[in-house]
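Notes from hallway chat w/ T.B., transcribed later so I don't forget. T.B. wanted the structure written out for a chain they're using in a teaching module, and asked if we could keep both sequence and structure tokens in one place. Agreed to drop them here.
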Amino acid sequence: MDDTPKQEAETSNILWNKTQLARIKEIDDGRNSDWIMEQWGEPIALLTEPRWEDMFWYSYRLIPLTQDEKVLSQLNSETFWHQWEGCTWRNCEFGVVATGPFSGGFELPETGRVSMRALYIPVDKPPHPSQKSVLWKLLSWMKSL
């Protein structure tokens, strides 16, 4: 059986199977997983050894994947970690891109780690029954009259 996530071209929604969803839950939606940092489509760093730091925050050990001196210099620049021009984060296990991560602070080069928030695998989950739309609640109420 192919465990590669299926992606619909028009909506960019990923159709996950039950095994994949169980694994994603096991790795805390990817927070306890390795990530490849790409800039303009080229891998520049590996974020590995995830460690929970504080509510919503994880830190990752950063391993450069490039020999480009300019990029290596950027990776050690506080300014770079607040702008991230052209950067994406791709999950190593599933190959999907995180939709809105951001850095919580510059820890390099002292610790070799970077704090991240919202670095997770985007999984659409159905709403809880208590979160049904106002329109649906109104229609239900009207039917009961």
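Follow-up for T.B.: Residues 1-12 have pLDDT under 50 and may be disordered. Might be a good example for the class.
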